[in-house]
Amino acid sequence: MSAGLEVRGLNKAFGGLTVARDINLDLNPGDRKALIGPNGAGKSTFTNLITGILEPSSGSIRLDGRDIGRLSEAQRVKAGIAKTFQITNLFKSLTVRDNLRLPLLERRGLTGRPIRRADRDGGVEDEVESLLAQFRLSDLGDRTVQRLAYGQQRLVEMAMTLALKPRILILDEPAAGVPSSESPLIAEAIAGLPQDLAVLIIEHDMGLVFQVAQRIIVLVAGAILTEGRPEEIAADPRVRDLYLGAHHG
Amino acid sequence: MRRALPFAVMLVVAVAAYYAFPYNLAFLTRIVFTMILVLSLDLLLGVTGIDTLGQAALYGSGAYAAGLFAIHVWNDPLAGLAVGALAGATVAFVSGLFLLRAHGLTLLMLTIAVAEVLKELANKLDWITGGTDGLGGIQMGPVLGLWDFDFIGQTGYIYAVSVLFVVAAVLSVVTGSPFGLSLRGIKDSPARMRAIGTPVGRRKLAAYVLAGAVAGIAGALAAQSTALVSLSVYDFQLSAEAVLMLVLGGTGRLWGALIGTAVFMTVHEVAASVNPFNWLFVIGFLVLGVVYAAPRGLIGLPEELRQILRRLK
Amino acid sequence: MNLVLSIITDGVSFGMILFMISVGLSVTMGLMRVVNLAHGGFAMLGGAFTHWAMVRAGLPFLPAAALSLVVVVLLSLPMERVLYRPIYKMGELPQVLATIGITFLMIASVAYWQGSTLLPIKLPAAMQGSVDLGFRTLPTHRIYVMVAGMLVILGLFWLTERTRFGIRLRAAVDHPGTAACLGIDTSRIFAVTFALGAALAALGGILGAELLPIDAYYPLRYMVLFLTVVAVGGLGSITGSFVAALALGILDTAARYLFPDFGTIFFYGAMFVILGLRPQGLMGRV
Known about the structure:
The complex is a heterotrimer.
Chain A (H helix, E strand, L loop, with lengths): L4 E10 L2 E11 L4 E5 L6 H9 L6 E6 L2 E2 L5 H7 L1 E4 L11 H12 L14 H13 L15 H14 L4 E5 L10 H9 L6 E5 L3 H7 L2 E6 L2 E6 L1 H6 L1 H12 L1
Parallel strand pairs in A: 3-8, 3-9, 6-7, 7-8
Antiparallel strand pairs in A: 1-2, 1-4, 4-5, 9-10
Helix pairs in contact in A: 3-4, 3-5, 4-5, 5-6
Chain B lengths: L4 H16 L4 H24 L6 H18 L4 H23 L4 H21 L1 H4 L24 H23 L1 H11 L1 H6 L4 H27 L9 H14 L5 H20 L1 H18 L7 H12 L1
Helix pairs in contact in B: 1-7, 2-7, 2-10, 2-11, 2-12, 3-4, 3-5, 3-10, 4-10, 7-8, 7-10, 8-10, 11-12, 12-13
Chain C lengths: L1 H31 L7 H16 L5 H24 L7 H23 L15 E3 L4 E3 H23 L1 H11 L1 H6 L4 H22 L10 H4 L1 H11 L4 H21 L6 H13 L9
Antiparallel strand pairs in C: 1-2
């Protein structure tokens, strides 16, 4: 039994189409792993299996030794698994503060409370402000999200997910769509994540992956091709052919 | 302080209307209970993002329940409101279990179907409901045992306005609460709400039941004020007009519901008294004007004007 | 036995009328994602023009009906351009609102022009009376309606399966974004489809005037009926509309024959059950 996430022999098929094939993966506190692979390799399927949006055809997903493979999306969030969205999925018409309040209130089990104003809970407000400060969003707290620059929206996305106090954090293409001028903000935010958090980054931007990941897993056609340290992956000719070659071609 | 201001404005307008139109109190009362209906709709359409064209199902059930309760059990007005609220909430709960998984056109059609089925049911049960003749003979007792309903409708108006105040205050608290914030979150992105661990289906059902209770109160108040319940309380047209009033005023902010209702019904009354088809021209153009020129409704107009002015500068 | 036959002939012809009026609505809603509550208005306009052309201008039925179809098409094109195009990108609520507004304006215009009384359409002698089939007689009108309905669906299949326009139309319904990228002029497809749907609705309105009488309030009275066919059939599906229209037509007719006291409860009950089980409709995609 291990602390952290343990995925064994995970398979998923839609009809005759296998989109995840015998995937094994460990994610322990403090890990910074990256999952890369060409388009259609099954990265999104894999995250959906972990977060409970999809149900696996076979295989096990354990968190701290406990089987969570049958839990609903909401139950897995409570168990400590959270992910950011590839395409930002925020509450666009709400302010940044309200966007952070919602997960904080939910974590405390308060979103069913129909009395007392949502912005009057001392504990929540303290945490809102400290998250804003951590992601350098304090000045933008009262803006509606739709009026933020895209890079800033990605930060809100990350802050919201962090507000759930997850132990396993899946960052689904945290830099997707972010102009290169704003991408250092993202790298900085990832570097500033709590040390004991287990982080899995799914990303196309190789610069960012090599900057933040300790280990890289390469996924091709639903199966793991190889796993290793960044320099090993960079030197692997198969990865060059299959992924980097395709990426630049 | 800022939250009390709209209530103060409401009070001033209600008192002014009372003295300005002493012989139109029945019409003013009708505006007031329609406002409550449109408020209940705003909780669904504007706050939670549940589209519906079947609010009449909840309203009508409240009306029949309150009417029957007054005739057969007890004619106390406040007890009648409670019964109406319970009836609206029950219909909302039962139908909501089926409805709320649907979206878009399907959801709209299901909400319409609920109201139509209830209408046919009320028609079939004519030995209870009076069928097409309507449920007559409703004689309300005094409000709080003190004030009798009078012929000109003074008590009725003050009573209805008081109920409106209480409903608006409750909804104002609820929409500002964590629960209300979670409903707004569901409107913006149900997927994200699920991802932060909120049971979206249960929250939507709770919102639907609350809206059902409020719509039921509106129906009960209508039954008490007009002393009649007819099959038209379940009309599709009523649901559709409630949506028009809400979007006309502006969704999601409660006060838009009040403004939209007042404007719509006043325009209706004035234009229809000239010529009934006149009224359809007027409302048709009014509605198109709002959609194309003021998408946030009348309540959003000041802000839109401000933005235009800012651009001019 | 006679009763069953009556239910089937009346139900099928009612279903054909529902199909003609609703199919355009289904395709435009599938294509443009617009909730168009005013679609029944085109059926009414077709009927009202035919009434006017026959009574006021003294035209015989066929030229009057043909002229009405042309007029409805000519009206629908600028309406699509001016009134509908701005709302394609809006949410459902503004669409509901705008198209109810359009419905009100249609009602008010027809009432202003023709009054709010019934606008009957007198069928030519050839369509009246009944035909003896040997084992029983059938009203001629029903036969015309069924033949017209079959021709419409065959024509639509030919159009969507065999023509360049049809291929583009299907592409635009299935993958709107991709279709636009491939250089398909979606806005022209929208306009043509809209006009075609309006013309079919007008045809249904004219032929169906015996079953759904024409007056100014027609679009409001039958709004839910047409929307039900679309929702039950599944958005954007011609076959779905056909199946749903026939099924609902037969169901409603059977209920009227067998349980006249229960009104429309079977109709709405069936809609509720079908949509409760299959929210995307019979033939709709998830």
